[in-house]
Amino acid sequence: MNEDYGLTDNTEKHQYEFHIEGLVPRIEYIKTNNGEIYLTHTEVPYALERRGVGSQLVKKALQDIEKQNLRLIPLCPFVAKYIQRNPEWKKMVMKEHYIEQPQA
């Protein structure tokens, strides 16, 4: 199922969200006053797993972060793995915060 979900930036709760079937997959973040955003935690409700929801959420959050011209620090392992698999996003990551994973 590859639906296109609308991204909500819930600034009150400090998270990017989708609203799907009454559920709220989200990426929690911390924004600093000097133009940095830390993506700290991604959560996709069990009922929505294996439908590409998490990847689409990360992609749309990254697009929004790029549009705002923020510097990205991906603390969430899911986000970091997404960026490794989609290297076009590496340009947004603050260099000292990008961790290359050894190739197996």
TrEMBL record:
Domain N-acetyltransferase: 8-94
Keywords recorded for this protein, A-Z: Transferase
Single GO MF annotation: transferase activity
Mitochondrion among keywords: no
Pfam families: Acetyltransf_CG (PF14542)
Keyword Transcription regulation: no
Name of the protein: N-acetyltransferase
Species of origin: Coprobacter secundus subsp. similis
